[in-house]
């Protein structure tokens, strides 16, 4: 119990530090993430090549925050996500008590812009690192014998 209390106090102090460094706030309760998701998916529709699918999937990945909030509060995530998209307002988030989608700024639910920005930046860096490693693995030939190389001569001399 003391460890939970310590972690809570530490989180509160860090939240105050973040707001002091950058006092910009965003609507919380999944409102920011669903707005980003919608805008990125709209951007994906303007692309004509295969990048469209990657951009759309990136946009859909932002749905995980409101989905997790809804599921942890015991609400049907699919219905909440659909209602968030239907709201078409960047301040509409999830009321975890009722499961309703409403303007969360009225209730004083905000997230720090600095924390959100760093979260997105670090996530993108992690994804790019994974993709680079995947490309390296895909580009290297697999181990095993090289069948294109001629067998050595029995007398030990190379041509």
Short description, anyone?
The protein has 6 helices and 4 strands. The protein has 159 residues and is mainly α. The longest helix has 27 residues, at 113-139.
Number of strands: 4
CATH class: Mainly Alpha
Tell me the CATH topology: GROEL, domain 1
What portion of the residues fall into strands of 2 or more residues?
5-15%
SSE pattern: HEHHHHEEEH
- Low-pLDDT segments, ≥5 res: none
Could you estimate the helical fraction of the residues in percent?
Answer: 55-70%
- Overall, the morphology is elongated
The N- and C-terminal alpha carbons lie at a distance of 76 Å
Largest sheet: spatial strand order: 1-4
C-alpha Rg (nearest Å) = 24 Å
Give the helix tally.
Answer: 6
Provide mean pLDDT, rounded: 84
Task: Write out the CATH superfamily name.
Answer: GroEL-like equatorial domain
Largest sheet: 2 strands, antiparallel
Structural class: mainly alpha
Q: What is the domain total for the residues?
A: 1
Multimeric state: single chain
Reported CATH architecture: Orthogonal Bundle
Description:
- The chain has 159 residues and is mainly alpha-helical.
- It has one domain: GroEL-like equatorial domain (GROEL, domain 1, Orthogonal Bundle), CATH 1.10.560.
- Helix content is 59%, strand content 8%.
- The chain has six helices and four strands, in the order αβααααβββα.
- It has helices at residues 2-21, 31-46, 51-61, 64-72, 77-87, 113-139; strands at residues 25-27, 92-94, 101-103, 110-112.
- The strands form two sheets. Strands 1-4 form a two-stranded antiparallel ribbon. Strands 2-3 form a two-stranded antiparallel ribbon.
- β2 and β3 (101-103) form a beta hairpin.
